[in-house]
Amino acid sequence: MIEMHDVWKVYPNGIEALRGIDVKVDQGEFVYIVGPSGAGKSSFIKLMYREEKPTHGVVLINGVNVKRVRDWKIPYVRRRIGVVFQDYKLLPHLSAYENVAFAMEAVETPKREMRPRVQEVLELVGLGDRMKALPSQLSGGEQQRVSIARAIVNNPTFIIADEPTGNLDPENSWDIMYLLEEINARGTTVVMATHNKEIVNTMRQRVIAIEQGVIVRDELEGEYGYED
């Protein structure tokens, strides 16, 4: 599913965000990425959906070396990747339905296939009655549900979630986590960067800890391991 071999990420200013990363995430896993601020978590996540390229080493996503993918082919590689962001990244002038449909339009899905699939995923995330609402008419939790619906609408093999509960209150945070857990139970791999100690320690899954660009801990049913 996801493999990194001797991966380094060095930015133009000389900062080494990642150093010699070797890791593999298998199909169906649920993995937390943890570590202090500035540890390299965001760079690690961005490499997975080809927002960044490795400076050195190989990143394989579903067997594809993402460093070699031409820019115009990136949307097709990302078709099998769902991404959920902390700040939702919804298009403000589009309805919930249109935001989700946009992800299918990006990979040229026939329109006859869009409507039933978009309706299906919005029902799955509990927003079947909010399809026409604009982001400004939705709560933070509802906006994140739209973001998750958009992430899964193309039937991705895995979801990358970058601090998906970071802007939510505890109740909405747990609702989002239960939703991601349900999606994972259906066979979709989930990789989630988070600072939420309570969630990691309660929903015991694999934990990969990054510090100063290096993986320092990789544990099944791991704990957060850092003070708030």
TrEMBL record:
GO biological process terms on file: cell division
UniProt-listed Gene3D superfamilies: P-loop containing nucleotide triphosphate hydrolases
GO CC annotation: plasma membrane
Pfam families cross-referenced by the UniProt entry: ABC_tran
Chain segments annotated as transmembrane: none
GO MF, any single term: ATP hydrolysis activity
Domain ABC transporter: 2-227
Keyword tags: ATP-binding, Cell cycle, Cell division, Cell membrane, Membrane, Nucleotide-binding, Transport
Matching InterPro entries: AAA+_ATPase, ABC_transporter-like_ATP-bd, ABC_transporter-like_CS, ABC_transpr_LolD-like, Cell_div_FtsE, P-loop_NTPase
Main location: membrane
Localization terms from the record: Cell membrane
Record's bilayer topology term: Peripheral membrane protein
Family per similarity comment: Belongs to the ABC transporter superfamily.
Database matches in PANTHER family: CELL DIVISION ATP-BINDING PROTEIN FTSE (PTHR24220:SF470), IMPORT ATP-BINDING PROTEIN (PTHR24220)
Assembly and binders: Homodimer. Forms a membrane-associated complex with FtsX.
Chain's role: Part of the ABC transporter FtsEX involved in cellular division.
Descriptive protein name: Cell division ATP-binding protein FtsE
Organism of origin: Shimazuella alba
